[in-house]
Every structure is written in C-alpha cells, then in structure tokens.
Design a protein that fits this description.
It is a single chain. The chain is an all-alpha fold. Helices cover about 80% and strands about 0% of the residues. The chain has nine helices and no strands. The chain is elongated and about 75 Å long.
Length: about 220
C-alpha cells in the first residue's frame, strides 16, 4: 500500500499530467490534420480522376499496410538524412497524420459510396455540378454514417501516441517509465494509472462522438 501512496504522490501525478497534456496536444493536432487530409484523399478516390485517383489509392493502400511504428521511425530517423528534420513532437504528429489520413480516406470514400446512388443522380438532374452535389448532398449524409468509425479511429490514435515513447516523446507512457525506473516497485500502480488516464481520454472522446451523432440524426 505504501508503494501506491508514494507512486501517486503529487510530484509523480503532476509529472504524469504534464505528459497527458502532451498526449492531448499531439492527438488534437493529428486528429484535425488527418481529418482534413483524409477527407480530401477520400473524395479524390471517390471522384475517380484518371490516374490521380489510382495513384492516391496506391499510396493509401501502401500506408495502411505499414505499421505505425515503422512510419514513426522513418519520420524521425530516416527523413533527416534527406534534409527533412522534425522535432520529436513534430515527427510524431507528422507520422500519425500520415497514417491516420490513409485510414480516414477509406472511411470517407466508403461513407460517400454508401449514400444511395439516386441522391447524386437526382442532384445532377436538377442542374447541380459534381462539386455541388458532393458538398450539399453526398457529404452531409456520408459524414452522419461515418461518425462511429471516425471516432473509433480517433480513439485508436490517442492510444497510439504511446508508440512515440520509442523516440522519447514526453507523453504519459514515457513519463510513467521514468517514474517506475527510479523505483521498480511502482510499476503496477503506474500502469494502473496509465490505464485509467487513457480510459478517461477515450471515454470522453466516445461520449463527444455519441452527442455529435445524436444531434446530426436529429
């Protein structure tokens, strides 16, 4: 019991909460960027632009079949050799944005395809251009259907920030390792606290997704 009390001291908790803030910042920026880029890539795939859509699809399939950890390694260790260098935080955001954009692109494309074909045919027959049909008719309906898988993907993104401990991103998992490295008896309480903090973050995100889903249905 004493080890739990010492593990959850204010100094350790503040240290962990600072790491949690890093996790949140990295996740939020990655979520925003990947949502924008993933939506654009998904639309390009759906549009079936000669050569361009095929090339985008090839790149997306390639990225989706690579481990995120490999992309993080490549971003942090390999890119500097060709003159592109990021900080630890920048490398993590870049790698996670690339990976999540590929995942979201398929979700977006699938969401648009799931909208009944009659919707687009009716819009085009009424004089709307392809862009107008996409913006006013297809995307609003598609995003309603995409909310659950998109939120699920963002939950995975938050959990995947822990992979960046390998390049010493000062987020929660990395800081917990520092704490229990000083006292191995605090490993169990640290992992329990990590599980609790990740649960809180992801549970809150899931509830936000449910609220958005209900409002969009209404």
């Amino acid at each position: 019991m004493n080890e739990f009390i010492h593990a959850y001291s204010w100094i350790n908790m503040r240290f962990l909460f600072e790491g949690m803030w890093v996790t949140v910042q990295v996740a939020v920026v990655s979520v925003i960027l990947s949502f924008i880029i993933g939506s654009i890539l998904g639309i390009i795939r759906y549009a079936k632009i000669p050569y361009v859509s095929w090339l985008v699809g090839l790149v997306i399939d390639l990225i989706r079949n690579l481990p995120l950890l490999l992309i993080i390694f490549f971003t942090y260790f390999a890119l500097p050799h060709i003159g592109v260098q990021f900080s630890v935080v920048g490398s993590t955001i870049f790698a996670m944005t690339i990976f999540e954009s590929a995942m979201l692109a398929e979700i977006v494309r699938g969401g648009i395809v799931s909208v009944p074909k009659g919707q687009s045919e009716g819009a085009r027959s009424n004089g709307l251009s392809f862009g107008q049909t996409l913006w006013y008719i297809l995307l609003p309906q598609a995003y309603k259907k995409m909310i659950p898988p998109i939120i699920s993907q963002f939950v995975s993104l938050i959990k995947d920030t822990s992979l960046a401990t390998i390049i010493m991103l000062p987020e929660m998992t990395y800081r917990a390792q520092i704490i229990y490295a000083q006292n191995p008896k605090q490993i169990v309480p640290m992992f329990l606290m990590l599980a609790f903090l990740y649960f809180v973050l992801n549970y809150c995100l899931s509830k936000v997704g449910q609220i958005i889903d209900k409002r969009m249905i209404v």
